[in-house]
Amino acid sequence: MYENQKFFEKKAAESSEFVIDLDNDQSQENLSPQKLVEIGDCFVYDEAGNRFTMNQLWSEFKTIFVFVRSFLCFTSKEYIEDLALIQREKLKEAQVRLVVIGCAHWKHIRNFRKLTKYPYLIFCDTDYDIYNRLGFHKNKDVGRPGDSPHVKSTNFSGYFSSLYRAVTSSSSFDYQGDLQQQGGSLIVSPGPVVHYYHADATGRDHTPINTLLAKVGMKPILFNHNNQSEKQILNL
């Protein structure tokens, strides 16, 4: 089901080279060489419950990792809907892999994929092991409208839509991840080499998608939200 399934056939890289280029004020302590080795050995699960290490995910290509909040959170949903608009051909041309990691149980991946129309890899860190090692924040702050070019809903409409999805879910009710868990982003290439790291302070503090694309040498996307603030945030 996953694109480039052969990606997982090779063993994880053995090298422990560590180079980091932080483009923000995040603490490098969260990504020390030893911490990166530990993260590489952590497990994530696909929608069938199959287990993979982080090393397997970054061992061949430069990989953009996007860690999201609860799958029920409207900020996660709307951000991933925009992430889904990245063209497959552009990723292949740039030799870049795109991976979303959630903190819910893996059984929720399939519905989240269907909801967001996201066609690429999704895994879950069900034990919050990677989230904790990366130093991702814990709070319930979803940010303010206008903080993100990718979240179109107001807090009121967003909360309502999240509640509706929760009560109409086909699976037994759960929050599909810790509601206080914030996400973040990480770009890693074989080595491993860390190119970018960001820990979200709020639900709307995720890295703009075009910033991630620029970090891997890809051209920006002009999202069709008819939102002037988006162009200002993305410098387009």
UniProtKB/TrEMBL annotation:
Family annotation (SUPFAM superfamilies): Thioredoxin-like
Top-level taxonomic group: Eukaryota
InterPro entries: PXL2A/B/C (IPR032801), Thioredoxin-like_sf (IPR036249)
Classification via CDD domains: PRX_like2 (cd02970)
Pfam families in the record: AhpC-TSA_2
Name by which UniProt lists this protein: Uncharacterized protein
Native species: Brachionus calyciflorus
